[in-house]
């Protein structure tokens, strides 16, 4: 029988944020059936599943609006039981605010949450003990708005992308200090290679993009972790926000084509693209069309299926990574704008 990319996924679940829902929805990974939703605080953003504690973490960044255009920053992250689909606890990080990116070190039971800065302090990363669900400290990143955050497999080094600062912040997670700044134009999503030697960073920042003007070339900057320097660039045709690395070494990036629009400097969104590279050879492997404004990407544990959340169309697109054919589209409920955002793949309980 031919291989089915959905085989063996019975009991697995995909969790999806609706930013304007504001909800986290759950879907059966084998059938795409909607299982239910949890209402959360306004403006949920990213998700991170902790398999050790079996908790799903969700950041809530703003009271309304989005980065650089909001009515005020929130201070909470929410822990959800994905099996019962109930909130376990809302953890208030105040006075820290604008929590967004999430990265997990399950071996050390640490959750890292990027937070925005204020007039008297730069942005940084809050460290949470996943057993007690209490903050342990903070690491400064020397930039006003660290957004996405990722750590190396050893749990020793973290990387924060900064939308408006011209560098990626490198932090020592054991000492809790900023150790380097890697020069790039304002940056978006990122991923760290399986051996920790390379970091793939989307650049430039979406706010600096113009559909009608000459601009910084778009693509993925490749950082050598040992020298903390950019050593290569994987060019893309359009602006990139999300970056994800699969277990099989495929680098997934979400491109957002924009058409000129007199009413908007950024332009008018066109259907997005999932573009696939080999992380090892840096070869471009192909692409697939997805919804409007891809914002978050994840994949199944076996690296067979890509899940692309598109905030503009409030859809999640499932793509077979062997054939780059579309498998399904999930429509995510929203109330106004924007829609689908954070994603997490949750394997069934052992």
UniProtKB/TrEMBL annotation:
<dbReference type="InterPro" id="IPR011045">
    <property type="entry name" value="N2O_reductase_N"/>
</dbReference>
<dbReference type="InterPro" id="IPR051200">
    <property type="entry name" value="Host-pathogen_enzymatic-act"/>
</dbReference>
<protein>
    <submittedName>
        <fullName>YncE family protein</fullName>
    </submittedName>
</protein>
<dbReference type="InterPro" id="IPR015943">
    <property type="entry name" value="WD40/YVTN_repeat-like_dom_sf"/>
</dbReference>
């Amino acid at each position: 029988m031919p291989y089915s990319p959905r085989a063996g996924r019975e009991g697995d679940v995909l969790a999806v944020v609706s930013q304007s829902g504001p909800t986290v929805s759950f879907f059966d990974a084998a059938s795409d059936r909607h299982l239910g939703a949890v209402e959360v605080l306004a403006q949920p953003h990213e998700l991170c599943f902790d398999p050790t504690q079996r908790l799903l973490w969700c950041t809530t960044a703003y009271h309304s609006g989005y980065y650089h255009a909001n009515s005020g920053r929130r201070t909470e992250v929410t822990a959800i039981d994905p099996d019962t689909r109930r909130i376990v606890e809302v953890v208030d990080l105040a006075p820290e605010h604008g929590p967004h990116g999430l990265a997990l070190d399950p071996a050390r039971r640490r959750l890292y949450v990027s937070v925005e800065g204020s007039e008297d302090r730069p942005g940084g990363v809050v460290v949470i003990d996943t057993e007690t669900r209490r903050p342990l400290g903070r690491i400064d990143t020397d930039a006003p708005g660290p957004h996405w955050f990722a750590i190396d497999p050893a749990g020793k080094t973290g990387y924060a992308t900064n939308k408006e600062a011209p560098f990626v912040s490198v932090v020592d997670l054991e000492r809790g200090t900023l150790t380097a700044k890697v020069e790039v134009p304002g940056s978006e999503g990122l991923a760290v290679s399986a051996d920790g030697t390379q970091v793939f960073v989307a650049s430039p920042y979406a706010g600096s993009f113009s559909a009608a003007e000459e601009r910084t070339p778009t693509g993925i900057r490749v950082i050598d972790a040992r020298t903390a320097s950019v050593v290569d660039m994987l060019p893309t045709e359009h602006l990139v926000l999300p970056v994800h690395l699969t277990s099989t070494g495929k680098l997934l990036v979400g491109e957002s084509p924009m058409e000129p629009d007199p009413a908007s400097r950024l332009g008018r969104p066109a259907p997005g693209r999932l573009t696939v590279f080999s992380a090892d050879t840096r070869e471009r492997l192909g692409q697939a069309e997805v919804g409007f404004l891809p914002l978050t990407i994840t994949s199944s544990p076996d690296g067979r299926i890509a899940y692309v959340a598109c905030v503009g169309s409030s859809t999640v697109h499932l793509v077979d990574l062997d054939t780059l054919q579309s498998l399904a589209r999930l429509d995510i409920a929203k109330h106004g704008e924007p829609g689908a955002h954070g994603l997490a793949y949750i394997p069934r309980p052992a």
